Amino acid sequence: MFKYILLLLQILTIVKSQLTPTVRTLHDTVLIDKKLYIFGGFHAPAPNSTIESEYNLNPDDRFFYLDVSKPFDTSSLPWTPIPNNEKDLPLNFLSSIITGGVSASIGGVNNDTIYFINNERDKTLPPVLTFSTKDNLWHSIFQQSILGDRPIGRNQIRPITDYNGKIHLLTGFSFVTLQGVTRNQGGIIVFDTINFSCVVKDADISRLEYSATLLPNGIIVYMGGKTSDGRADTDNFRIVYLYNTTDNTWKPQPTTGDIPAGDHGTSSVLGLDGFRIIVFGGLNSGNKLLYVLDTRTFNWYEPNVSGKNPTIKRFDHSANVIGKYMVIAFGSGSDLDFSYRSNSESDVLLLDIGNSSNYVWTNYFDPNAVIPPQTTSLPTDSNSTQYNDNSNNNKKNNNNNINPGVIVGVVIGVIGIICIISLSIFYYVRRRKTGKGIYEKAIPTPSNSENIIPIPSDLELTYGRK
């Protein structure tokens, strides 16, 4: 009898641990340690306090993660609840959906913390809350602990964390700074997650629901989006904006090729080669599902794609690069159309981007899939923005691209010089002692086949989002 009770308890535990999240748009996703954390979002056309209260009745539906440490099929997604979430999730300290929601991004010294940045509507809330993924603990960061301005986030902002732990939040709305300055054209807010400081800087553009992609040289590429009154600029892909996170400079960059029409609610990720930006979805029915922008030439093109296309083009979704996959989560069609579920389509779409000459829609995720070698040859044009070395962050990436053959040659050369000097000294000493000079037996020299420790050359191309 006891065995049957124990078995029943185990079954109940398994059932409880299996999540079936509701559909959603304008949610945040952050990838940390093989877990894709998902927070917030909504599916009602006009969220109000009553609807949001209903959302919050199920904390495990507000904050959870997709376990990407193991293989899965998109028909059976490994959604996982966060331990003690029902008790610990501080929903009362996070900005509500009806006020604009929050922005969430990775940060901290070890890149193992999620930073939730509240909006400016409720001044009683702490500007920032953190969630430690190591121990599942929440902490509040109040304004007195932040040097400088008050950080502001919203669910229509696409936060980008740079290589120095600073979260960049491009705004598309007016707000008042902590010093009482009204910024009608918005700006870009930079929050340092390591030193807990914040500054508000001028920006060349003011948008919401845009796409943002961090390049290896520390430049953020902004494209798409809409104004605060809901208008999408018809040229928001024809001209993309480059923001240098090192020297705080902006550059409008014209593009060529098969340019997408103006749109918002799209997503963008950096391809595995480090220079192709892959754009998916959006609201404009005239655009195709996928576009690629080559940042060496800033030329747009439609990629070759095989596999079964999604039935509905989604907008206000999320996208992250995990292994060799572009992982697209949730989103909707126009007018909050979530009919993709009735078409037996998963909440998660997988695009295999391992081969840049042919992307593949797939239903299977393999965390151990081998990433094919990528073409990373640099353009000869010194004016190429992608690879101008105008950032200290480039030094690490440039070191990673050192030719291993050069390294081996240098090491062998140094060993040879040391051997020659050692032999010369040895013969000189022997000659003085014995008078036999060079007729002594030679000292064996080290073989050129000694093991040489290779210099690592891995380039991390998966960034904190959304």
UniProtKB/TrEMBL annotation:
Transmembrane regions: 406-429
SUPFAM superfamilies: Kelch motif
Keywords on record: Kelch repeat, Membrane, Repeat, Signal, Transmembrane, Transmembrane helix
Pfam family, one: Kelch_KLHDC2_KLHL20_DRC7
Low complexity: compositionally biased ranges: 388-399
Biased composition regions of type Polar residues, renumbered to the chain: 375-387
Signal sequence interval, chain numbering: 1-17
Region named Disordered: 375-399
Keyword Transmembrane: yes
PANTHER family hit by this protein: ACYL-COA-BINDING DOMAIN-CONTAINING PROTEIN 5 (PTHR46093), FIBRONECTIN TYPE-III DOMAIN-CONTAINING PROTEIN (PTHR46093:SF18)
Official protein name in the record: Galactose oxidase
